[in-house]
Design brief:
Layout: E1 2-6, H1 20-28, H2 48-60, H3 67-74, E2 75-82, E3 88-95, E4 97-101, E5 110-113, E6 119-121, E7 137-140, E8 146-147, H4 152-156, E9 166-170, H5 173-182, E10 184-189, E11 194-202, H6 210-216, H7 227-236, H8 238-246, E12 252-257, E13 279-282, E14 292-300, E15 303-314, E16 323-330, H9 332-339, E17 342-352, E18 361-364
Parallel strand pairs: 3-16, 4-10, 13-15
Antiparallel strand pairs: 1-2, 1-18, 2-17, 3-17, 4-9, 5-9, 6-7, 7-8, 10-11, 11-12, 13-16, 14-15, 14-17
Helix pairs in contact: 1-2, 1-3, 7-8
Length: 365
Amino acid sequence: MWRLRPVPFSGLPGWAGDDHRAALDAFARHAVRPGDETYRHGAIGISPQNLEPLFLAAADLPAGDDARGFFEDRFDCFALADDDGQRGFVTAYYEPEIEASHERTARFRVPFYRRPDDLVAVGEDNRPDGWDPDIRFAQANADSSLSAYPDRRAINAGFLNGRGLEIAWVESEADAFFAHVQGAARVLFEDGSLQRITYDGKSGHAFTGIGRLLVDRGEIAPEQISMAAIRRWLADNPDHARPLMEENRSYIFFREAPVSDSADGPVAAAKVPLVPERSLAVDRLLHTFGTPIFVSADTVNSARWSKLMVAQDTGSAIIGPARGDLFMGSGDAAGDRAGSVRSPADFFLLVPKSVRFDPDKVVAP
């Protein structure tokens, strides 16, 4: 059982040395998200209504005020602890930047697609009998029935051809694939213009990590697995690269978004721009977006990681109360930092003082 156990801020490893102002700025972004954006109440028990006045207070805090004191005065701290001694785990992700063309050419032949009009969200009100509750998208048919949407292999084979859904064309199928895994990308067109594309739905099939497949099949040693190692394998095995990627049946669709500030990441699930090294992807069924979470990881890029993060994104592979994905930024350098992150970590939730939790509150089996 995972439980929440109260701990003093002084008990957080590295808390005193963190840049609390950077965390506060990321937290304050929730005060200016779109007015119609409401957050789901995570099962851990932090209500969006508990966080709303704190977002506003953070946005109003003058630059010179005590950011560390803001968190210590308004929140209580709880460690996520497992009865069996299991620890949390972090990986990292980034926003790729990829050369692209507005038109298909001899060089640029791999498309990014907009969301098709026959892709619909699946919920409790329209889920067909017998469908797995994890299926969130499907194909709407002419008779109003739903069926499984064609998967990555079918789309690669041309299912969406001729529908005018192409946003951009890129050169490398592997680049496109990893943009799908990350859920966003910045595309740099030949005319020098820069366009951001962000997640706008998926085929509905379960995500399959090809890194795990390569480890299970003995292609890459477990201790050597990383995004760079997977890329090398794809480049070294061109005849097997596409079939391997197609074993991940999940296919991502995108929408265009402006790049208003090149220092910001994409607008992700919480509908605020991600902040490099401060935005955390979490299990949205458990955590409420906007929750501050202090992460103490053993090794991130050969150093200890002790930073106050903010829950601002999610991902299909991010499951469990103490599982997180660190957003590292945009471009190749961020990709280098993100690609090898796989570390045990301890998670500490900052819970608004308006929330009352019993000691040792159970939050997950």
